[in-house]
Amino acid sequence: MDRVTIDGRSYSDPDVLSLIRSRSGSVDPRREVIRKARALNARLRSFDAIEDPRERLRILGSLAGVTINPMVAGASPDKKREALIYQDQDGRRFSFYDPNLNEGRVNFSIAHEIAHTFFPNSGNGARFRNLHAEDSKEANELERLCDLGASELLMPQEEFLDATRGDMGLHLVAPLASRFGSSFEATVFRLATAFEGTAVAGLLQYRLRKEEARGAARRDQQLLFEADPRRSQKDPVPRYRRQSFHTSSKCGQEYLVLWNKSFDPESCVYYVSGTEVATGIETLPTKARQRGFLEACRALFQREGSDSDHPDMLFLWWQ
Ligand SMILES: [Zn+2]
Fold it and tell me: Which of 76, 265, 309, 313 could form a disulfide bond with 204, CB atoms 3.0-4.6 angstroms apart?
């Protein structure tokens, strides 16, 4: 399979490869997606200021050659897809969104579909993806890049930083989300990615390490046949570990929170009560070992099967 590695990340999705090869020399697709989103935002700024987020997206879409419409009621072909884009025989592109979802999710989905137009090769990519499982690595790398572009389109760096007025923290999320028409979660992540210093944000889940989870599943199987009195002692304890993960551009690899690393049991993320924000000055489980401000709150959207005593958590850390 065709595969390219840039800045430590490897890419094999045909759409992503077409973007990497769209200019002479190979381009970093993450930077290229953000560059294209910023260029589109810059074109929009040449019009009068548009306050309504949905209207902004409609115009951004038309600048990118996409007509945006709500789906006809109940016509969503796939529950997992919140919006979709397709091209007719004359090359015109249309994006349809599910109007039943909340404002923030709809807006992010529309922006995500617009970001798909940044990839020169969309037709082939769609065919390729049909051959792959939904959550294959190839399907995901393109979707993550489109999310990156969506965040920049919906919450442009300049306007977003203007609106924060040099302040930082989870108390900014609600007013920013209402100003930009974004979801609470996407706004938390944007606070990190737009920040001019070092900042990290993400979603935490209370879970075992991957190999521990596999071991536990095996033991449960064995227990069907034999009772093991030592079991309770041997059972590994879940901890908060990261799911999604976002950093400011100033963060190098040393700020990466690895998949299996856990937040220290003393961290404030274990002591969030109700809808409160927990705060601390803490070191993240990264190579950087730097202390910074850490804030955490319960995620509004809880996945099915999340631990009721240890719900999914959003965190924001900065220096
Ligand atoms: Zn997509």
Answer: 313
